[in-house]
């Protein structure tokens, strides 16, 4: 975590929040989290209480991107459900306060893991952490969206058709150089789009272990974070997103499990993770999983292209990291094409 408060007017924040939350009668200090390429995120220390502020970035933004107001809504709706989330307090839609929309939530104490190898944990404990991740994912997809007031949180229709059209448009609008593999992947996904099977759930959109806060032993998830891409859609998008991440190289950049001896490291296989998810949801299996996996590679490539474009335009939260992430777009495109050739895990 950086101690920088770049581009955050803490005095303006304190004036807005004063009287609305306890502890904001005095000056507030802020530390900017190093993570959070999309939406700058700050730890606020106000008197004896810690909060987190999450804001839209400054500058010209892609339409519908950086939707912190949607994050606020979904976090509010999920409070008290089986999906653990931070308690949110205030949404400020007045861009004149600090230059962009922002919201404030409680800071959740706990442990985070930067990648799924879970090297910080004893080998014997790693499977339990990944199973807890699996449990939270299944619980998310079993939320009754009507009961929590989210029945209008996303448009109707074929989720993958809608998302493919959206992210293709986003990708082309942020394209900096021609990437043939990405264009081919878009065409192949359009040609192999499955029929809508009627599943329509709340989906997170960026479900990864580094977006979760755990208890010190890693056995309990205390909060699922980063809901910017959440919507109503198809649950297999989230599940395939996990498997996509795991097929990337290990380490702080790829944050995957490619080439890792999972049995020796106490980690589950892709197949076992998918089966545990199906068992929890009462599913017999997932046909044509390769399409969902390929789509996940495509969408992440499109997201990273947007990160790169913002860096080139001078609007990235962490420009150096954004440039590095953007360089992975061709790799994601090729991985998506490979996934289409393998319909099942």
TrEMBL record:
Residues 30-253 form the Aminoglycoside phosphotransferase domain. InterPro entries: ACAD10-like, ACAD10_11_N, Aminoglycoside_PTrfase, Kinase-like_dom_sf. SUPFAM superfamilies: Protein kinase-like (PK-like) (SSF56112). This is Phosphotransferase family protein. It comes from Tritonibacter scottomollicae.
